[in-house]
UniProtKB/TrEMBL annotation:
<dbReference type="GO" id="GO:0046983">
    <property type="term" value="F:protein dimerization activity"/>
</dbReference>
<dbReference type="GO" id="GO:0005886">
    <property type="term" value="C:plasma membrane"/>
</dbReference>
<keyword id="KW-0812">Transmembrane</keyword>
<feature type="domain" description="Anoctamin transmembrane">
    <location>
        <begin position="290"/>
        <end position="831"/>
    </location>
</feature>
<dbReference type="InterPro" id="IPR032394">
    <property type="entry name" value="Anoct_dimer"/>
</dbReference>
<feature type="transmembrane region" description="Helical">
    <location>
        <begin position="659"/>
        <end position="682"/>
    </location>
</feature>
<feature type="region of interest" description="Disordered">
    <location>
        <begin position="873"/>
        <end position="902"/>
    </location>
</feature>
<keyword id="KW-0472">Membrane</keyword>
<dbReference type="GO" id="GO:0005254">
    <property type="term" value="F:chloride channel activity"/>
</dbReference>
<feature type="transmembrane region" description="Helical">
    <location>
        <begin position="543"/>
        <end position="564"/>
    </location>
</feature>
<keyword id="KW-0325">Glycoprotein</keyword>
<feature type="transmembrane region" description="Helical">
    <location>
        <begin position="455"/>
        <end position="479"/>
    </location>
</feature>
<feature type="transmembrane region" description="Helical">
    <location>
        <begin position="499"/>
        <end position="520"/>
    </location>
</feature>
<feature type="transmembrane region" description="Helical">
    <location>
        <begin position="298"/>
        <end position="328"/>
    </location>
</feature>
<feature type="transmembrane region" description="Helical">
    <location>
        <begin position="710"/>
        <end position="734"/>
    </location>
</feature>
<comment type="similarity">
    <text>Belongs to the anoctamin family.</text>
</comment>
<keyword id="KW-1003">Cell membrane</keyword>
Amino acid sequence: MMDTGSSPKLTYFFQRGDDREMYKVPRFSTEDDDSDYGTSSANGVEERLCYLRDGKRKVDFVLVYETVGPSRRGSVPASQLSAVQDKKLMKQEQWRRKFMENLSNAGLDMEEEVVQSSNRKLVYFIKIHATWPVLCHYAEELNMRAPLQAHPNPSVNWSEIALNTLRLPNIMYQDVPCKPLDFYTCPFRKSKIDRFLGSENQETFFSNTQRSRIVYEILSTAMFGKKKKGEVGIDRLVDEGIFSSAFPLHDGPYEVKKNSKSSPMNPRQVLYEYWARWGCWYKYQPLDHIREYFGEKIAIYFAWLGFYTGWLLPAAIVGLLVFLYGVFTMRYNQLAVEVCENPRAFKMCPLCDENIGCNYWYLDDICGYAKLAYLFDHPGTVFYAVFVSFWAVTFLEYWKRKSASLAHHWDCMGFQDEIERPRPEFAARAPFLERNPVTGIQEPSFPRSLRNKRIAAGLGIVFLMISLVIIFIVAVIIYRVLVSIPLFQNATFRSQAQAIANMSGAVVNLFLIMAMSRIYEKLAYRLTSWEMHRTQTEFDDNLTFKVFIFQFVNYYSSIFYIAFFKGRFVGYPGNYTLIINLRNEDCSAGGCLIELAQQLAVIMIGKQIINNAQEIIVPKLKAWWHNKQVKLPKKRRTRWEEDYGLVDYEGLFEEYLEMVLQFGFITIFVAAFPLAPLFALLNNWVEIRLDAQKFVCETRRIVAERAENIGIWFKILNMLAHLAVISNGFLIAFTSEFLPKLLYQYEYNWNLEGYINFTLAYSPNGTLREQCRYRGLRDEHGNHTPFFWRLLAIQFAFVIIFEHVVFGVCRLIDILVPDIPESLELKIKRERYLAKQALQDSDTIMKVAAGVDDFGERSRRMVLDLTAEISNELHPPDPLPPKRSLTSCSMNQHTRDRPNTS
C-alpha cells in the first residue's frame, strides 16, 4: 500500500528496443527526494521540469487518466463491481494498453508517473518524447517548412512607418526579447537536411510547437481497437473517458520573479510580460511570438483582432466628433426650438384609448426628449453613415492584404488539410464503411441522402427557434405598450413615459437575448452532431452557419423592428392598427432614431459587459472546480501537474462570434449611434488582454494548428459590410428626418420654420372628443398628402443612388488595392527560386562533385561556378551567423533593433 502522507510517485519508463517490445522499469520517489527531476533554473530559460527524468529528452506531450484506487484497474474491489462495470473497466484498460503499445511501436519514448490525490484518486501522467528520426519522418510527411536563409527585409507595420516619417515618438513600440527570425523556407526533406539552417542541432532544430504537432499527429492516427469501428486516435479516447486529457506542456511558469528580471525569460514569460499584462494595452502585439508559441490559428485570430481594433480608432474618433458636433449645435436645432418655445401650441392625441383614462397632452411636455433626439439625428450622422459604409469595405480589403502577408510570413500560404481525418464522434457512430477516394483506406461513413434529410430537419428546428425569437419580440412590444399606459396616465412621468418604456424594454430584451443565445448554442451543437458530418471542418462550418443565422436574428431583430417597422403601421385616429386589442406603438415626437440608439446601446454595451464578466469569472470557476475534484498535492508540483490544474481550451468559435456580432452593430446601425465604434474600441482593448491572459495563464497549452486566414468568418464579415451599406441607406432615407427636412427646405422654408406644424396632422372629425394632432403626413380625412408621395419617391431614389455609389466606389477600391502587395509577390518569387536551387539543382551538383556524371572539364567548371553562385545565394555575407540555434535567445540579440510584427 502507498503512504498517502508522503505522496510517493511510481514511474514507468516505456522505450522502444531492438525487438520492438515494451518494457517497464519501476522507480519509487517521494516529494522529499531532492533528485526528483532536478530544480528549475531561476531565470526559467531551461525549465528542467519540462524534460524526462534523464534531463535530456523534452516532454513533447502529456496524457492523463485517473482511477479511483491504488491499482491501475481501480480501487473498487471486484466483488463490489457489477459484471457490466468490471467488463467496461477491463475494456478501457485494454484499449489504453494497446494504444500505448502502438505509440511505442511508432518510435515515441514514454514515461508514466503516478500521483495520489488527497481524495485517494490515482492520477497517471504519461510523458511522451519524440525522437529525432520520428521528428524528421513526420516533418516530411506533414510537409512542414524548414529555414533556408535569414530574411533580409524584416516586416514592419504601417503605423510605425507613418510615425517615423512624421518623426513622432512611437509609444506603441516595445523591444520584445527573443524575437523569432524571418526566413526563406521550403518543405522539409530528410535527404536535404544539411541545406537547412540549424540542422546540426537536433535539440533546437524543431520548435516546441512543431514537436507537439508531430506527436499529436501520431496520437491522432494510433489505433486502440478495430479500425473499422473508428477506434483510432487520442480524441476518441478522451471522448470515451479512457484518458482525462491530452496536452503539450507550457514552457515553464508565466510569472517572472522579481530577483530574476535581468535573466532571460522563457517564451511563456515573454508573452505574459509583453502581451498579456494589462499594462501592455497600448503596445503592439508580438504576433511572431504568439505564432511561435501557440501556432498560426491562434496568431491569425489575434492578428485580425488587433487589426480590427486598430481600424476602429479612426472610426471611433470620427464618431465622437460627429456626436460632439450634435452637442455643440443642439441649441440651434429649429425643431426643438419650435417644440419648446411654443407652450400649449400643439395639443396631441392620447397615446391609448380615451375610455381607459388616457388624456390629451401637449408636445412641449417632451421638450427635453426632442432636444436629446437631435444628438442622434442631425446632418453629421448622415455623413457618418456614409463614412462607415466606406470604412467597412475598405477595412476588409486591407485585411486581405494583411492576411496574405501573414500567411506568407508564417509559411501558411495555400495551406489546406487535404487528408482530414473523420471526427472521433463521427467514427464512433457511423454505421457503414467506405473507401476514402484520396487515401484508398476503408473509413467509417454515413449515407449522404440521410445526412441531407437530417440537415433539412435541423434547418426546420432553426426556423422554429427563429419564430420563437419573433414571438419574444412581440412580447417585448406588448410589454412596452402596457408599461407606457400607466406612465402616460401619471402627469409626473408623462414626459418620460416613452423613454422609460423603451429603456426598460431594451433591458428585458437583452436578458431574453442572452438566455436564448445560451439555449440555442447547445441545441445547435447537438443538431450539428446529429447531422453526422465527417470532418471537423465540415462540422465547424455547419455549426457556424446555424449559430450565426440564429444569433443574427436574435440580436438584430428588435433593432431592425425599431429602425424600419416601428411607427409605420400605426394608423390614425378612428382607424388604429391593433395588437391583442392594444394600439400598435408609435415613434415619439423626436423620431424613431433616438429609440434605435437606446436599443442599440443597451444591447451592445450590455452584451459586452456580460461577456467580459463571464470571461473573467468562468475560467476561474472551472479551474477551481477541476482542482477540487482532482485535489493534487500542492507541494512542489511538477510542470505537468500544474498544467493539468488549468482549464481546457474551448476553441475560438465564441471569440469570433462575439467580434462578428460587434462588427454588425457598429456598421449596420451606426447611423443611429455614432458612439458605437468608440464603445467597441474600448471593449476590444479589454478583450485582447482577457483573451491573452486566458491563453497564457488560465488554459492548458493547445496543439499548434495551421491556418491561412480566418476562414468562413471573412465571408460573414463581407456579407455584413454589404448589408451595412443597404441598411444605412434605408436608415437615412426612411428612419431619420434628413430627407423630409431637406424636401421641406426646398419646397417651403430653408430655415425649417413651421416644420413641426407641417408634419403633424389633425385628427378626423368625430373620431375623438376633441380635435388633436398626431404624427403623420395626412389630410383631414386621414389620407396621405401629395408631399408624402413625393417624399416616398425621393426616399427610394436616394437608397438606389446611395447603394450604387458606395458599391461602385468600393469596387474601385477593390480594383486599385491588390489582395497581395507587390513587395510580397517579390518575396514569394525569391523564395521559390531559392527552394528550387536548394532542393533540385543540388542533386546534379553533388553528383558532379563526386565524379558520377561523365562531363568534360568545361562542364565541370560551369557546375562549380553554379555551385559557388548558389552558395552565395543561400549564405550571403550577413552579420547574422549562418547556422545557430533557431530558438536561442542569444541568436535574436542581433535583431532587437528590428521592429515587431503587429
